[in-house]
Amino acid sequence: MKLDILAFGAHPDDVELGCAGTLAKEISLGKKVGIIDLTQGELGTRGSAELRRKEADEAARILQISVRENLCFADGFFLNDKHHQLEIVKKLRKYRPEIVICNPFDDRHIDHGKGGKLVSDACFLSGLRRIETTDENGNSQEAWRPKVVYHYIQWKDLRPDFVVDITGFLEKKIEAVYAYRSQFLPDEGNDPQTVITSQNFQDSIKFRAQELGMLINRDYAEGFNVERYVAVDNLSDLI
C-alpha cells in the first residue's frame, strides 16, 4: 500500500496530540495516511504496553487511518543508530509516503527529540540506493525518499514555521486523544495521577489550537516546523 502521508510518534498518542487534526483533514480529502509508533510506551506511569496498543488501534479507527504499526523499540532507550535507522528505512520503502511527519527536534521528553532526529535521518538514508533492505517476505526493496519531512509540536511552545487550519476537525482530534483513556482520563483505575491527567493539560489541547487558529483568522490550527524552506507556486497559495 502506497501512502500519501506517514506519521511517526515515539510513543502511542504522540501523533494524536501533535497532528491528529491535520491527519483527519487530509483523510477527509481522500489522502491515505498511516501511523508508525516507535515504542509501545511501556515506561509510562499509567497503563501497559498491551493496553496502549488497544488504545492506539481505537484512535486509528476514529481517525480512519489506513495502516498503523509499532516497531517495538525500547521506550526511553532506543538510539539513533544503524539498527534503528534501517528498521525505519524498511517502513519508508514499504509505504513510499510523499510526506513524513514526526516528533519535534526539541521537547520535554527525551524520546521526542531523539525520535524526530531518528526518523529524519532515516528519511535521507532511505533514498540511498546502495543501502540494501528487504521486506517481510525477503524481497529486495527499492530506494525511496519522501519529498518533505515536517515536525509537529508537542509539549514545548515552539514557534511554528507554518500552521494548518483544522477548523471542523478539532473534535475528531480530541476524540482520538481520549481513546488513550489510561493516559489522559484521571478516573481510570488506581494508577497515579500525572501531569497529562490534569485539567490544565486537557484544556491546553484546545487552547493551543485556538491560539494558532486565531493567528491565521481561523477557529483552530496545528503548527509544524520544517527542515527546509516551504515553497509555494504563487502568492495565491497563501491564506
TrEMBL record:
The parts of the chain that form a coiled coil are none
Q: What is this protein called?
A: Bacillithiol biosynthesis deacetylase BshB1
Gene3D superfamilies per the UniProt record, alphabetical: LmbE-like
- Its gene name is bshB1
The record, for InterPro entries, names: Bacillithiol_biosynth_BshB1, GlcNAc_PI_deacetylase-related, LmbE-like_dom_sf
- Pfam families from the xrefs? PIG-L
Q: Which organism is it from?
A: Capnocytophaga gingivalis
Give the domain of life.
Bacteria
